[in-house]
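Workshop exercise sheet. Pairs work together: one partner reads the sequence aloud, the other fills in the structure field after running the prediction. Swap roles for the next sheet.
Pair: D.N. / O.F.
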Amino acid sequence: MASNYKIQNIVATTSLEKPVPLTKLARTQPNTEYNPETFPGLVLRIKEPKSAVLVFSSGNLVCTGTKSIAQVKQIIQAVIKQLKKINVNITVTPKITVQNIVASGSIDLKLNLNFLALEMENTEYEPEQFPGLVYKLVKPTATFLLFSNGKLVCTGTKNKQQLEDSMGQLLKNVKTALKNYKN
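Structure field:
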């Protein structure tokens, strides 16, 4: 029983350590959305790699939609380049903190979700409301959505090692539960 996965989204934060004039940025850059009455941050959309960055007046950024740390760095450089156009010169090398990784994958097995919900701890399964089983892994911390066809979504990890460890732990826990099913 193996599993494979693909990173779908990384949410990362950083600080440019300099205030950003959001109104000026919104006025001069076409790829922005800024409605300070409803939300204090400006949304900057980047076409390649496709992503969105929340820019706050404090200089804090939240980057979403990327699939690798290399892409996160690329996006932050693109933001710095756009800020330079409005005379905001960033002198620091921003430190990136990954807040969450979302990955999709599969276990090459059909899963009996009713059985797993009974057999495994920290699960929620309400098939009338949602076809997936929610499974919270405590160590390493991760949350999985498991589907009966073996497909899964993993969220809550902060680096590749944690992601791999939690996938491994999930497989181990599912195998243990399935042993009981056969006996």
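Discussion prompt: The first helix runs from residue 22 to 28. What would you look at next?
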